[in-house]
Design goal:
The protein has a two-stranded antiparallel sheet. It is globular and about 40 Å long. It is built from three helices and two strands, in the order αααββ. Helix content is 38%, strand content 22%. It is an alpha+beta fold.
């Protein structure tokens, strides 16, 4: 799979779960993927928006898709 396929898979899965941890993203894509780098690239390409919300003693990361399909961008 290419990086575009991994990005599309993450876009599809955050429709269901907007608060995935790194382990879930690795399960969706590949164990060799650097999750934070993948998300940073997706934010840079304006595919998703990342929000950090402090809840009690923890900080939750919420991913919001901006587009549904990568082909929509082109």
């Amino acid at each position: 799979m290419t990086l575009v396929h991994y990005k599309q898979k993450v876009l599809d899965m955050i429709q269901i779960d907007s608060d995935p941890n790194d382990r879930h993203i690795r399960e969706w894509t590949s164990k060799d993927i650097q999750v934070k780098r993948l998300l940073r690239d997706m934010v840079r390409e304006q595919l998703i928006r990342v929000e950090y919300i402090k809840q009690g003693g923890t900080t939750k990361r919420y991913l919001t898709p901006i587009i549904k399909h990568i082909q929509d961008e082109i």
